[in-house]
Amino acid sequence: MLIAGAKDNKKVTKPIFIVGAPRSGTTLLYQILCNHRDLSFFTHNMLRAGVYRRGRILGYRKELLARIQNLVHRDEPSRLPQEAPECWSDYLGVYDYLTESDYTEEMVYHYSRVIAQVQDIFRRPRFVNKNPQHCTRVRILNRIFPDAKFIHIIRDGAAVASSILYLCSNFPSTNSYFSGIREKIFPLLGDKGYLEILPEIQCYKLARDMLVSKAREAKTFGSDRYYEISYEDLVSEPRQKINEILDFCELRSYQDFEDRLPEIRNGNVKWENMWKEKKNSLVP
């Protein structure tokens, strides 16, 4: 796709979007792929530099500002992959279900310029991003980037719901992260009276199911552009599954990338007891 108005006529080619409900393994997969030498991604330093905003003076030319941030903030967290919700929400909202009819040329111009800028900062030819909110955006992202690739990771619904409830109950700072689900997805599950009798853990399970359904709309884009993997398969056969994902993304594996693959453990086991304890209170 050509970047409208770009003097150097750069292309954003086959961007990769990792989709999946929160706590499904999207972060794990994102971190693994971001180790690849051909993939660029948002970092905290880039967000500090405002690469996702069009400035009045610099426009979308924030590469120097981002590199200055890298010099000032050398700590590892400043360079880790970020979802960058502030980048996407301006045009795509928060868990808003968007389709081809919501498309505008301005979206194409904006996101093409932003992603091209991220690629330039890294000096890498491809881009990857994960964001659970992309589950409701696959159709509009497909319209913006007709050659985009979507990797959909799906995790057991009970584990997802239990994990979210545990975080919200024990780490209040995470509540804001999941507020979009409560405000935008919960109301779609049923009328207010019905929701009031549902245990919170069941609401999260149903929200997960809805997000999986929305993300699966990307199946219609074709098998060369939609890849579905279960969290359980990823953690049981990580090297095999990562190689399959690289093939899907049209990326080559290499020794250093394989050496940096982390040890992965199945995190579902710790949530089984929590779900069993809550199961008797669930509404049929």
Q: What does the model show?
A:
It contains 14 helices and 5 strands. It is an alpha/beta fold. Strands 2-3-1-4-5 form a 5-stranded parallel sheet. Helix 7 packs across helix 14. The termini are far apart.
Helices and strands in order:
Blueprint: E1 16-19, H1 26-33, E2 39-40, H2 44-48, H3 63-72, H4 85-92, H5 105-122, E3 126-130, H6 138-144, E4 149-154, H7 157-170, H8 175-185, H9 192-197, H10 200-215, E5 226-230, H11 231-236, H12 238-249, H13 255-259, H14 269-279
Parallel strand pairs: 1-3, 1-4, 2-3, 4-5
Helix pairs in contact: 3-5, 7-10, 7-14
Short account of what is shown:
With 284 residues, the protein is α/β, with parallel strands linked by helices.
